[in-house]
Write a structure and sequence with these properties.
It is a single chain. This protein has 171 residues and is of the alpha+beta class. The protein contains four helices and six strands, in the order αααβββαβββ.
Length: 171
């Protein structure tokens, strides 16, 4: 829920345009479904279901498209060290701002999963990771520059049989 609050707090004009287009397409399909409902009920029902599907998938598509084009960034894990005598993990990483604008905030989601060479097992392990940690970075990252992240993650067990995956969203 906190991600949704942060997302709406850091909306750009491109977000408004993309979400506005999704909203207009939803309204047009919804009105079309109401008109067709009386003339051709089956077709009206299909357009109604399609209009309901446009909202979540369209919003997700807008966010994904903007993250890959306008808010492009790179996250690279440099070092992972389990700390002795505690269930903590020290992580060193680097965030590179590859976009044409400055970032005010970044959200990093880390997943620790078991290592596997099988694609099916890896997919299943991603569905139920050993640990999920979220890191909020409230530092300004200038365009075409990088930020060194050093963080201790508490209550995380990590071994040589595990691997860490990361997803990053910057605004």
């Amino acid at each position: 829920m906190e991600f949704v609050k942060l997302y709406f707090k850091h909306l750009s004009p491109y977000d408004y345009i993309g979400l506005g287009v999704v909203g207009i397409v939803f309204l047009l399909l919804f009105i079309l479904s109401l008109i067709l409902l009386f003339k051709k009920p089956f077709l009206g029902f299909v357009f109604f279901i399609l209009s309901l599907m446009i909202l979540p998938f369209g919003a997700y598509g807008v966010q994904t498209l903007l993250n890959k084009t306008i808010r492009k960034c790179e996250f690279q894990i440099k070092n992972i060290k389990p700390l002795h005598f505690s269930k903590s993990l020290f992580i060193e990483a680097q965030i590179k701002n590859l976009s044409k604008s400055d970032f005010q905030m970044c959200l990093v989601r880390l997943k620790i999963i078991k290592k596997s060479n099988s694609k099916l097992k890896k997919f299943l392990y991603e569905l139920k990771p050993l640990a999920i940690k979220t890191i909020y970075i409230h530092k300004s990252i200038q365009k075409r520059s990088s930020y060194a992240l050093k963080k201790i993650l508490d209550n995380v067990m990590y071994s040589n049989n595990d691997e860490m995956t990361a997803k990053i969203n910057c605004y």
